[in-house]
Amino acid sequence: MERAAVVAGLGGWVPPTVVSNDQLAEVLDTSDEWIRRRTGIRERRWVSPGQSTGDLAVEAGRRALASAGLEGVDAVVLATSSPDRHCPATAPEVATRLGLGPVPAFDVAAVCTGFVYALATGAGLVALGAAETVLVVGADAFSTLLAPDDRSTRVIFGDGGGAVVLRAGSSTEPGALTGLNLGSDGSLSDLIEVPAGGSRQRSTGVPAKTEDTYFTMQGQTVYAQAVRRMAESVQETVERTGWNLAEIDSFVLHQANARILAAVARRLGRPPERFLSNIETRGNTVAASIPLALADGVASGELRPGHKVVLAGFGGGLTWGSMALVWPRLAAHRTVSPEPAAAATEVGMP
Fold it and tell me: What dihedral angle (degrees, nearest 10) is formed by the CA atoms of 171, 177, 180, 182?
């Protein structure tokens, strides 16, 4: 039996502030009907003033550790594209706040594919014997990067954190990660970006325009790329795993919007009900979307032990990736609570 990284804990957290479509319609040229028709989103959660990606990551990590029955891990990998600061990385502070001691901790930036990339990184640490346990977190406070008057992006994104604990185990046991597929295309990097704030802009010595400090996306082209890349990546992972598409119980894709999920389902020829979705109440939570969808799937009973599951993401870079596992039996821990708490009792809404 080969050594493998096995999912041993799951946790998620979204901030308590609910932002409904009707609230956005009060300040933007939009409506609840327009947003739902184009995205499938009814509401999303946003951070409160002073709340950050690190706060989301800590709460999600705490719940994942509790789910795994652990107080410590050997490493922390945090996927985010909205770090608390440009420098240093957010992960070391998350590890300290969780009381994990001087373990290696670092960030991975792959936007909405970030969680898959971070999972691959954590699994690599386990496979190499560099770690017996790894906390992998996806967290983003992406609302902080959105232009206040941009209807095309402001209605889509929500904030949140999701996490899993990986442990060393056997490649034949439930929860073992397999079939990894990753890819990127930097020639299309300008499709999804925050133009200003990096070394390229800062080295010019020219102050950034205000509009260039916010997130931008070329929606129609991104839609086509997302559908194609996630569908192709899923097919590659299923083949590498030795399964076939008809065997997959649950496809857990990045929650970009409902139309993209439906289009991927059509392209793969699989029933839409096999594709877990929490987009209606979460929005697009970027690196947190896959683990939050897992947590909500466990809460709803849609995701059960023994299910064959494929995870897939697509995001800026462009980047994409996927992997597979047989879903294990995990202790459940709450995703949403009015205030951050040291521990929780069940996955899902309070």
Answer: -150
Q: In CATH, which superfamily holds the domain spanning 3-170?
A: Thiolase/Chalcone synthase (3.40.47.10)
Q: Is cis: bond before 291, omega within 30 of 0? A: no
| CA nearest neighbour of 328 among 135, 114, 170 | 170
Mean local confidence (pLDDT), 157-184:
97
d(CA 123, CA 247): 24
Give catalytic residues, as residue numbers. Answer: 112, 254, 284
Q: Where are the domains of the chain?
A: 3-170, 178-326
Helices (H) and strands (E) in the chain, counts: 11, 13
Mean of all residue pLDDT scores within the chain:
93
Q: CA-to-CA distance for 151 and 347, rounded, in angstroms?
A: 32
- For residue 77, what is the enclosing H or E element? strand 75-79
pLDDT tens sequence across 308-339:
999 999 999 999 999 999 999 987 655 654 44
pLDDT of residue 347: 29
Torsion of CA 88, 93, 95, 100, to 10 degrees: 120
Alpha-carbon dihedral sign for residues 293, 294, 296, 297: positive
User: For residues 324 and 307, what is the distance between their CA atoms, to the nearest angstrom?
Assistant: 11
Give residue 336's pLDDT: 55
> pLDDT for 306-316, tens place per residue?
999 999 999 99
pTM over 0.85: yes
Domains 3-170 and 178-326 share a fold: yes
Sign of CA dihedral 35, 36, 37, 40: positive
In whole angstroms, how large is the CA radius of gyration of the chain? 19
Residue 81 zone, left/alpha/beta (φ > 0; ψ -120 to 50; rest)? alpha
Architecture of domain 178-326 in this structure: 3-Layer(aba) Sandwich (3.40)
For residues 287 and 115, is the Cβ–Cβ distance under 8 A?
yes
| Cβ–Cβ under 8 Å, residues 28 and 154 | yes
Please tell me the distance from the alpha carbon of residue 255 to that of residue 138, in angstroms, as a whole number. 13
Q: Hey, what amino acid is at 217?
A: M
CB of 176 closer than 8 Å to CB of 324: no
Six token digits for residue 175: 């929860």
